[in-house]
User: Which sequence fits this backbone?
């Protein structure tokens, strides 16, 4: 489709600057790209590379301190920058629409949804009544099941997925020529993400619309877009047809980004993940050479002095002097499976949970919301248990119960190192408290901004490690060293650190008391992939050094698979499947696990034969009868599922599935999906230490 | 165009209102108990207080008995509350007359003064805050913000005296006393109240304008405002329909809490302008150890405060469906 001469959107040599501290700093540098009619173009890159700035300059909604420093944005040949206020309003009303990252914030909280949607038709000149009926139709088009109820409701009454559907309906209501999607599925569950992406793909054909799709998630982009552009430090470093760029990247940055992903069935035992050393250059701080040179294993003197032009490689563009050998970028970590590290010695169990229940708002009649139901598990020293499930499945409640932050119902039992744990953290012994620590999802809010990093870690060492004076200083240095924080990092406040460094501080804090179990609650989901890779490597290293066990909560199945020895799948607080990681991932799976795997985006997956869960996770206040999953189960066999809750049955030794369908039948139903198991890029790996 | 009024929604909303009413009632009961206790712990027996230090012991006891002060505390409290509910607030020791007419007159006066101040300050302060936010960091914003803050920190007796000097003494535009002649009509009363209201307006303007400004700035920078703008709505529509109702929610609460101050906290202004409001009444009662008057005055101020908060809560619920309807359905 990119052969179409008629471009809907053209960025022509666009540069955008932000004014910081009195000087203008360029965040976009001479970016040129074209999007044809009906084409979907993906713009990818890590945070801070200028993706959102590009989107906001297209709609001319730059922050107060932002300005266009040069170049043009043309929509259907019209220069957006030259429009006056009224013309710009008309363009926004008729030709351009945007779907935003956080749908909960992008909808007005105090106006009924029907009203917010109808408004778009009213701008187009429809009468109030007509606008209302068209709003209704629009909600039907985005597959909202009860439009009448949603019309009268408010955003906070809808789930994230439904809110994003409303957002999409609103964007498409004006029948625009150009749709900008700014991280539209970030923050949504994988199952919901899959549905939203399906919907976008479907509507795109129906409305024959051009799309600018902005995302940090390469896999998501690979599923939606025809062409893709990779941004680094405000510059387009690679561009081309999606499958070519991802299968045969010609810029080292793209190569490195793809290698950071723990996809393709990789495991921690087969070696660490590749990372991208160093940091993104600061705002506007690029020298004369290639912006990526400082972090590139292929860089030569030429790269540091001469900025590479965009080389046109037969439709694929690369801004690299050495585009022909981009894929020979040296690996940053060893890949050879380290057999010697796999210890055959029997491991002792450190954590044992038996029959744990947590019911919120319990009354005497036995009512209430069962957030965790009859959960039992065992965690061995030095092992990782992955906890997966959609939001609302009880993952966080379980973690909090374990930590003693909320009290479970009577009857359950938690044992740490063979001793029973009191229900509340205040009743636990000091030993037990420091042995059980947590790393939170968002290090921003988990670290006190008014202390220095040294103060934060030092306090943890005093509290948990009982250390004082010189002994504490020594331990502090050692601990900081093991999470790769330098002296400079110790002296600053957390707000001066990047997300990845902050998470390192949080990890150091958790390890201050030499814990035996650390709960990791989505520790990398707010981080860029290269930073995620580094954090995962760190966690694996700390585990092998200290024999610590993790309970790793994540919605990213690739990450869970990489890190976990055992996996537990939760649905509505119930254990649906439990077993060794490899067996859970290779199958036979519980139908719910199967659906989660199917929803997960991996680069190069086949689009057909995907299983989709319909509707949303039911309310835990009124769980379905029989098997909790039967209302959404694609493999429901009959009334037995609605009536009888199946027991957890062993499929293989240690691998249990809660399903009426026998394991061998499940295995027969679930034909292997080979495409997820091998990643295209890894096949191209040639020269592991081939520095030019 | 309105959201459907489903029965479930009506139930949610009425449950919300009932809950708020019940909470207000609990507040009032607690308040009355505290006020009553305050009356009890004040030193000296009432009989002694009234009869003076040289009266003999029997006479004091007899007076206490006739006032019912020798009964158990709980009975006295019940009696007091029951009387209060019927409009009998007891007898003033100082005036040797029923308390109730004094309270009613003083409360009426206070309400008039508060109403004049309120009607002027609320619209102007909100307008000021909104204008400041729309011109964020421009000169007009600076003038409004800094000017408002300056006025807020000046005490009422300073601004009051300056205002009296300027408008009452030099320009002679406004009467310097708030006490209007007997039988004055509504307009004359307002004429007399403008000058006393001015210091209050100056104090409150900065406060309310600042809340309105920050709420407005936050709303203007929100994602949903961006959505509204990028929908292609006219700027005016964005402001009126999308921004204002969300922006002014915190302001409503602030205004409500300031209403209590406007009714009960005006001792200085009332003294300065010789105006018999409830603040001055309570102050005089406290000085004269006129306990029935004091208790009744405090309780009435408390009731006004509670009512103002209740109204603010309900207003917030009108504007914010998240408060009105609770969490997800």
Assistant:
């Amino acid at each position: 489709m990119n052969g179409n001469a008629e471009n809907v959107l053209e960025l022509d040599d666009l540069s955008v600057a932000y004014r910081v501290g009195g000087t203008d700093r360029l965040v976009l540098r001479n970016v040129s790209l074209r999007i044809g009619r009906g084409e979907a173009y993906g713009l990818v890159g890590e945070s801070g590379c200028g993706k959102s700035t590009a989107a906001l300059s297209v709609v001319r909604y730059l922050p107060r301190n932002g300005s266009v420093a040069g170049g043009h944005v043309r929509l259907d040949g019209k220069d957006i920058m030259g429009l006056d206020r009224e013309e710009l309003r008309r363009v926004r009303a008729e030709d351009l629409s945007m779907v935003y990252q956080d749908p909960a914030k992008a909808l007005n909280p105090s106006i009924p949804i029907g009203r917010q949607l109808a408004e778009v038709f009213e701008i187009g000149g429809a009468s109030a009544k007509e606008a209302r009926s068209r709003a209704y139709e629009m909600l039907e088009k985005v597959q909202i099941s009860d439009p009448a109820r949603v019309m009268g409701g408010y955003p906070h009454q809808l789930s994230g997925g439904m809110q994003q559907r409303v957002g999409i309906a609103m964007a498409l209501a004006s029948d625009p020529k150009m749709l900008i999607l700014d991280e539209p599925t970030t923050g949504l569950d994988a199952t919901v993400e899959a549905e939203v992406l399906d919907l976008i793909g479907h509507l795109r054909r129906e409305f024959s619309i051009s799309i600018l799709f902005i995302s940090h998630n390469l896999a998501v982009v690979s599923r939606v877009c025809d062409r893709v552009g990779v941004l680094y430090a405000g510059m387009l470093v690679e561009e081309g047809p999606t499958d070519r760029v991802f299968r045969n990247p010609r810029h080292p940055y793209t190569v490195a980004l793809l290698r950071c992903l723990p996809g393709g069935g990789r495991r921690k035992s087969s070696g660490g993940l590749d990372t991208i050393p160093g940091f993104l250059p600061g705002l506007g701080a690029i020298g004369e050479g290639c912006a990526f040179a400082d972090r590139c294993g292929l860089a030569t003197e030429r790269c540091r002095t001469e900025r590479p032009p965009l080389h046109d490689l037969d439709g694929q563009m690369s801004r690299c002097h050495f585009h022909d050998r981009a894929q020979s970028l040296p690996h940053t970590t060893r890949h050879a499976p380290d057999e010697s590290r796999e210890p055959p010695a029997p491991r002792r169990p450190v954590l044992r949970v038996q029959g744990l229940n947590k019911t919120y708002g319990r009354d005497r009649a036995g009512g209430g919301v069962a957030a965790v139901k009859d959960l039992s598990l065992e965690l061995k020293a030095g092992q990782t248990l992955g906890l997966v499930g959609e939001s609302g499945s009880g993952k966080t409640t379980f973690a909090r119960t374990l930590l003693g932050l909320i009290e479970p119902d009577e009857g359950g039992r938690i044992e740490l190192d063979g001793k029973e744990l009191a229900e509340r953290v205040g009743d636990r012994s000091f030993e037990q408290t420091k042995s059980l620590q947590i790393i939170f999802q968002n290090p921003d809010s988990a670290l006190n901004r008014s202390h220095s990093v040294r103060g934060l870690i030092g306090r943890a060492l005093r509290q948990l490690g009982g250390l004082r004076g010189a002994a504490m200083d020594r331990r502090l240095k050692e601990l900081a060293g093991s999470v790769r924080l330098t002296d400079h990092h110790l002296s600053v406040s957390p707000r001066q650190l990047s997300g990845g460094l902050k998470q390192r501080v949080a990890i150091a804090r958790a390890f201050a008391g030499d814990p035996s179990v650390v709960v990791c609650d989505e520790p990398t989901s707010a981080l860029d992939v290269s930073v995620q890779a580094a954090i995962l490597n760190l966690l694996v290293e700390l585990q092998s050094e200290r024999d610590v066990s993790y309970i790793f909560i994540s919605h990213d199945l690739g990450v869970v698979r990489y890190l976990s020895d055992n996996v537990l799948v939760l649905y509505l607080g119930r254990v649906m499947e439990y077993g060794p990681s490899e067996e859970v991932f290779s199958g036979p799976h519980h139908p719910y696990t199967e659906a989660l795997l199917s929803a997960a985006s991996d680069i190069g997956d086949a689009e057909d034969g995907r299983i989709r869960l319909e509707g949303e996770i039911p309310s835990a206040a009124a769980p379905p009868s029989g098997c909790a999953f039967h209302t959404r189960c694609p493999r429901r066999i009959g009334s037995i599922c609605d009536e009888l809750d199946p027991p957890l049955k062993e499929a293989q030794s240690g691998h249990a599935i809660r399903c009426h369908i026998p394991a061998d039948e499940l295995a027969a139903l679930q034909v292997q999906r080979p495409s997820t198991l091998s990643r295209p890029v890894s096949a191209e790996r040639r020269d592991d230490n081939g520095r030019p | 165009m309105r959201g459907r009024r489903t029965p479930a929604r009506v139930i949610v909303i009425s449950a919300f209102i009932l809950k708020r009413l019940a909470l207000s009632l609990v507040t009032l009961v607690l308040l009355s108990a505290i006020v009553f206790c305050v009356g009890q712990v004040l030193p000296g027996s009432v009989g002694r207080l009234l009869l003076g230090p040289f009266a003999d012991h029997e006479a004091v006891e007899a007076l206490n008995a006739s006032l019912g002060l020798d009964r158990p505390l709980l009975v006295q409290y019940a009696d007091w509350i029951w009387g209060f509910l019927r409009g009998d607030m007891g007898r003033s020791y100082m005036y040797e007359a029923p308390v109730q007419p004094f309270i009613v007159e003083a409360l009426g006066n206070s309400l008039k003064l508060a109403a004049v101040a309120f009607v002027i300050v609320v619209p102007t302060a909100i307008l000021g805050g909104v204008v400041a936010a729309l011109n964020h960091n421009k000169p007009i914003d600076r003038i409004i913000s800094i000017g408002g803050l300056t006025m807020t920190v000046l005490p009422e007796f300073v601004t009051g005296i300056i205002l009296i000097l300027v408008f009452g003494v030099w320009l002679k535009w406004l009467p310097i006393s708030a006490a209007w002649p007997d039988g004055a009509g509504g307009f004359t009363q307002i004429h007399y109240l403008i000058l006393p209201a001015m210091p209050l307006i100056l104090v409150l303007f900065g406060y309310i304008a600042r809340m309105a400004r920050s709420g407005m700035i936050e709303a203007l920078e929100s994602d949903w405002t961006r959505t509204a703008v990028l929908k292609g709505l006219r700027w005016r529509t964005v402001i009126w329909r999308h921004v204002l109702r969300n922006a002014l929610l915190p302001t409503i609460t602030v205004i409500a809490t300031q209403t209590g101050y406007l009714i009960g906290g005006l001792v200085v202004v009332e003294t300065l302008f010789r105006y018999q409001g409830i603040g001055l009444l309570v102050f005089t009662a406290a000085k004269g150890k006129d306990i029935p008057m004091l208790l009744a005055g405090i309780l009435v101020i408390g009731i006004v405060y509670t009512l103002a908060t209740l109204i603010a809560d309900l207003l917030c619920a009108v504007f914010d469906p998240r408060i009105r309807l609770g969490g997800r359905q």
User: Anything to note?
Assistant: DSSP finds 25 helices and 24 strands in chain A.
